[in-house]
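Lab meeting, item 3. Inverse folding demo.
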């Protein structure tokens, strides 16, 4: 029988396929006994690298998440066959890290898998402080929760990616002076930036999972 304990917090989150850039927009609904995942849709994607256009416009996911306020866990689970719940008792570890100024990186570990989300706020709040994320998660997970207020290397990677892309474009421009011509420049402008961003994103995702 489903436990219908009160909802403690609702977070707007996204998961991302780092290679293609496709984002999966979801909401996490936290109760004392359940972590409910509500599916919203997909968005983004780098078409050139195998991604696909999503069906959910950017920014609408947060609106959909806010509409979940006031609904019971039973109603949320029954709203779609794609929604599912993870019992809190089955979760072994929760990692909560500061990501940029008002966002959080979330890693949930069970015996079967590890899931990573990024959250840009609690439902019903225009701006969410990191301390508010921590308060909600601590009420649910208590001693299972590990908190880091560092920026999880986000700033370093944010600065590093455009720098590497700029260097590669400069190198391609230098080659164009020779017999390679504009073909090299064109190929570099199309292939190199996307490939580097994909590699950096995958490295960043690996770092989040290993820490």
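The presenter then showed the designed sequence:
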């Amino acid at each position: 029988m489903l436990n219908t304990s009160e909802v403690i917090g609702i977070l707007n989150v996204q998961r991302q396929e780092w290679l293609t850039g496709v984002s999966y927009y979801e909401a996490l609904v936290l109760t004392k006994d359940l972590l409910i995942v509500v599916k919203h849709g997909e968005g983004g994607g780098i078409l050139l690298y195998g991604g696909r256009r999503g069906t959910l416009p950017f920014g609408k996911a947060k609106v959909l998440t806010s509409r979940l306020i006031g609904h019971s866990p039973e109603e949320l689970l029954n709203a779609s066959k794609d929604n599912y719940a993870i019992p809190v008792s089955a979760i072994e570890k929760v990692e909560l890290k500061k990501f940029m100024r008002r966002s959080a990186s979330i890693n949930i570990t069970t015996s079967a898998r590890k899931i990573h989300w990024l959250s840009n706020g609690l439902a019903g709040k225009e701006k969410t402080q990191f301390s508010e994320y921590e308060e909600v998660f601590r009420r649910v997970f208590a001693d299972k929760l590990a908190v880091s207020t560092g920026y999880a290397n986000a700033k370093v990677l944010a600065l590093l990616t455009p720098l590497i892309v700029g260097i590669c474009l400069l190198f391609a421009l230098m080659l164009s002076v020779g017999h390679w011509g504009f073909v090299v420049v064109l190929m570099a402008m199309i292939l190199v930036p996307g490939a580097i961003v994909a590699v950096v994103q995958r490295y960043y995702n690996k770092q989040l999972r290993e820490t």
